[in-house]
Design goal:
By secondary structure, the chain is mainly β.
Length: 744
């Protein structure tokens, strides 16, 4: 529970002096004969009263967000002509969301593909949201795959719909922007210790120190350990940030971020199909891999930022970031074996059922990324009209070394359903790393105008050009490169009749380049992926943003139509040098976000996406595939023309609500729901819909200290969360965490 800090001693003195002068005026010391104060009609001297105000960032104290930096520069959310979902620091803390995947699970319209190399590919509105392409930190692309933690996040913003005008390549379904905690002018510290099931221990520290009237230092730290039946998690992180010149014409920020982790990946669980329905059977918190499996990584990046405020009202912000990212993933593929000569079915699964550790999946990666971005904004007046200009340039340079299929050939012993974590391990026989090398450069230039004809009517128009260049050198010795010149557009219209309502309509485009560091890094001799021109997408949206109940509650509905109109297709001519851009798919539906206070004591967050219409409009994926050597033909399970795309459920929602019963007790409860869906690449299998429930109770000891108990997945629902064409990643099992938070 956030509280106003007491006034400092000098401030109390100033208040006392001002209060005394107000009562006595200029007659201090003047008395009548009987000793009463004598009235004197004289003007009072001017008194300046100074106090220490609560400068705590709003994201720490509310579920509601009214401003954002996702649209280039700080803007009111009501001025963004697209749907934006914001998960604030308070909501993350109340729900105990410790990594970005936890956060996205509470954001409607997001699904997860379980990748065949042990990582998840995020989908938004049914379109791929590659972790290395559409994830941003403070508006700058986060260029690598790693286990992102929330200990430095002030909030996480999800912008829905095409956004290449703002960000460049990617962003077909939208983008995710992680907003970092910034130093503020107040000395306040927060330490939280959490213990939970699965031997979970987590310690975070958030230390904010005001160093002068215009500067502050903030240090965030994190230690996280868990061992849930062999699925271990070990993370360490630190992120100091120093900010100076706050409130002056020149403000500077310097920050460093370091994270290292060593986890055992729960890569896959085998499913059993019953009449086309995926039936999860293994316990979600059982780890069937090897003790030698691992997902190790470390991330280090530094950021320098300068904001200059011109006397005529313009602002120029320039940010430079340099980062280094390393990753080593080795995961075991598990599957049901034959037990006593019988194939495993739903009816005969028992503790004695054989689990084969069939093979391993591995990935090695090292990435260096440099990003330089400069944005200028200014508002001009032309009579009764105003014109807000936002323009800028960004330059990115990535250099990556990757071994995308670096598996361990060592023989792996089997286990049984009843002995998930039996301690077995195998030696690492991978040998020399077969790195492929990738270099990408991108220069983006953009301009956007918001023309306000009247305070109620605004027109938004934006244009961006990207010069993208990439080169590859594969481990097999092949070398090639690709250059693309790309344009993105954005057009929007706002009608804002009053401070409580904003209506919008918008159109935006996006593109997905083939030369991407993650998804389309090819292996020799196949260069078709990288030689294919970019895919193109567009998004249409009509919506509104309302601030209700004296601005305490945000209510944001929108309807959308998103279309990828030249999707990559496999060329039937195997001798062709590139893929075809002949595919097409679309989704259409409704987004709804609610966040804020319904009453003084009742706070709520609701995110809902309904996609009744989703279809692969054009595709040359055949219903039958034939082996050219043997002539044997078989059914092709991949999605075909006319199908609903995989990982695109009709309904998905997240609800969370808390109630402050009295000054000491606060209670919370929530639901997460996702409708039934097919894996991408398997149209004959469907995962059932699921709903999980979470609970929270918090006891405030005093303004300095509180206790919070979270119970997640209360009913211990067993469900398929991340999906792949032949296996799934289970959703988190029931867990409980007890947290002690101290503020001082």
């Amino acid at each position: 529970m956030s509280r106003q800090r007491p006034l400092s001693a000098p401030s109390l003195g100033a208040l006392a002096a001002g209060f005394g002068l107000s009562l006595l005026g200029s007659s201090v010391g003047a008395q009548t004969a009987d000793g009463a104060p004598q009235k004197v009609d004289a003007p009072l001297p001017e008194v300046t009263v100074k106090g220490t105000v609560d400068r705590t960032p709003p994201a720490k104290t509310s579920y509601q967000a009214t401003t954002t930096t996702i649209g280039k520069g700080k803007q009111e959310l009501r001025d963004i002509p697209q749907s934006v979902t914001v998960v604030t620091q308070k909501l993350m803390q109340d729900r105990n969301l410790t990594d970005i995947k936890d956060v996205l699970h509470t954001t409607a319209g997001v699904t997860f593909q379980a990748g065949e190399t042990g990582e998840e590919d995020i989908r938004l509105r049914g379109f791929s949201l590659s972790q290395s392409g559409d994830i941003y930190i403070d508006g700058l692309r986060d260029p690598s795959l790693y286990e992102r933690d929330t200990f430095t996040n002030d909030r996480i913003e999800v912008l829905r719909g095409s956004a290449s005008m703002l960000f460049g390549k990617g962003s077909t379904g939208g983008v995710v922007n992680q907003v970092s905690k910034q130093p503020y002018l107040m000395t306040q510290h927060e330490v939280e210790t959490t213990v939970g099931t699965g031997k979970m221990v987590r310690l975070t520290g958030d230390f904010n120190i005001q160093t002068s009237d215009t500067s502050a230092l903030r240090i965030n730290t994190m230690v996280h350990e868990a061992d849930n039946r062999g699925a271990t998690v070990s993370k360490r992180g630190i992120a100091p940030t120093y900010r100076w010149g706050i409130g002056t014409a020149d403000e500077f920020t310097a920050s460093l971020y370091h994270l290292q982790y060593d986890n055992n990946p729960t890569y896959n669980h085998p499913w059993i199909l019953v009449n086309g329905r995926i039936v999860p059977t293994l316990e979600a918190d059982h780890f069937y891999g090897l003790a030698s499996d691992h997902n190790k990584g470390n991330v280090t990046y530094g950021t320098l930022s300068h904001l200059h405020k011109f006397s005529h009202g313009g602002e120029l912000k320039t940010t430079l970031r340099q980062g280094y990212y390393q990753r080593d993933l080795l995961a075991t593929v598990v599957g049901f074996g034959t037990t006593n000569g019988a194939t495993t079915t739903v009816d005969n699964v028992s503790d004695a059922t054989i689990i084969n550790r069939n093979s391993s999946k591995g990935r090695m990666a090292a990435t260096r990324g440099t990003l330089l971005q400069s944005d200028y904004s200014q508002t001009f007046k032309f009579g009764s009209m105003t014109d807000t200009l936002i323009t800028g340039a960004d330059l990115s340079w990535d250099k990556a070394s990757r071994a995308n299929n670096f598996s361990n050939p060592a023989a792996r012993p089997p286990t049984t359903v009843g002995t998930p974590d039996n301690g077995a391990s195998v030696p690492d026989l991978r040998g020399a790393i077969p790195y492929s090398h990738f270099t990408a450069r991108n220069l983006g230039l953009y301009v956007q105008n918001t023309l306000a004809f009247t305070p109620a009517f605004k027109l938004i128009a934006g244009l961006r050009n990207d010069q993208f260049s990439a080169s590859y050198h594969t481990a097999a010795g092949a070398s090639f490169s690709r250059d693309d010149n790309l344009w993105s557009q954005r057009l929007g219209f706002l009608f804002q009749p009053n401070e409580a309502a904003s209506f919008h309509t918008s159109y935006g485009t996006s593109f997905n380049v083939s030369g991407d560091t993650y998804q389309f890094t090819p292996g020799a001799p196949n260069t078709k992926d990288a030689n294919t021109p970019p895919e193109q997408s567009r998004n249409f949206e009509i919506g509104a943003k309302f601030n209700l109940l004296d601005q305490r509650l945000s209510f944001n509905p929108s309807i959308f139509y998103a279309e990828k109109y030249n999707e990559r297709n496999t060329d039937p001519d195997s001798a062709s040098a590139q893929q075809l851009l002949s595919g097409k798919r679309h989704t259409a539906g409704l987004d709804l976000d609610i966040a804020g206070r319904l009453t003084k004591n009742w706070e709520a967050y609701f995110s809902y996406t309904w996609m009744p219409e989703a279809k692969i409009d054009k595709s040359n994926v055949p219903a039958i595939t034939c082996n050219a050597n043997t002539g044997v033909c078989s059914a092709n399970n991949a999605q075909q023309q006319g199908d609903r795309p995989g990982l695109t459920p009709k309904h998905s929602a997240s609800l969370w609500s808390t109630y402050q019963l009295n000054p000491q007790w606060r209670f919370g409860a929530g639901l997460n729901h996702r409708g039934s869906q097919n894996p991408e690449g398997n149209r004959t299998a469907k995962a059932a819909d699921f709903t999980t429930a979470d609970l929270m109770v918090e006891y405030t000891i005093d303004w300095r200290m509180s206790l919070r108990l979270n119970i997640n997945n209360v009913t211990d629902e067993l469900y398929a969360d991340g999906l792949y064409r032949g296996f799934y990643i289970p959703g988190a099992a029931r867990s409980a965490q007890l947290s002690l938070k101290a503020t001082f």
